[in-house]
Amino acid sequence: MKRLGAAACGLCLLTACAGVGNDPVRGQFWDEAGSITDNGDFGNATMTNSQVMKNHDAYVLNLGKRFAAEVPSMVTFAFNSAQLDTNARAILAEQANWIRQFPEVRFRVYGHTDLVGSAAYNKRLGMARAQAVVAYLASQGISRSRLEAVVSYGETQPLIPTDNRERQNRRTVTEVSGFVKGRGQVLDGQYAAVIYREYIRSAQPVSTLDQANAPGGS
What we know:
The protein is an alpha+beta fold. It has helices at 2-20, 24-27, 44-54, 56-70, 86-100, 119-139, 190-202, 208-213; strands at 74-76, 105-112, 147-154, 171-179. It has a domain at 53-203: CATH 3.30.1330.60. Strands 1-4-2-3 form a four-stranded mixed β-sheet. Keywords: Cell outer membrane, Membrane, Signal.
């Protein structure tokens, strides 16, 4: 009888254990410590953060998209000229205001021309236009060490394909090119500093003076 009772008791324990195995809360007693918290993706967040922080190009791309979306990135020129008109200076003032918010970021200015004239002349003219933009941005307080006018596409990338004069083709385009120190990863917090600074600014209350100066304000 004692053996039969022990066997029954053992069977009961096995049955109970099997039943407990279907209950994650009660079943954790029989499993490894912490197993209930791991549903198969434990550690994925840390892994993703590490991968994202190492992806320097993705940060540059994201900032580039923001720049193009939030301010005009292009100015145009009169025919055979690298002089900035009133409209160009107004656009560049907007660019400078945006650039000042991101002291960690570098920018390139690309110069273009239309298809009138020789390729060699247009390449020089395109570079002159890019240099004029860099000079104006520098006059707005942007360090020249953050600005590059190193590439001129001349007449090779028209917005509007035509052999005639076309103002849209006589342009410069300002783009984000990278971080100031040009490191291969952003684990030192360059991009984090940008995000944190904007996060703090977004939490600041709007003053009555700002409200009065806002569009539609009294």
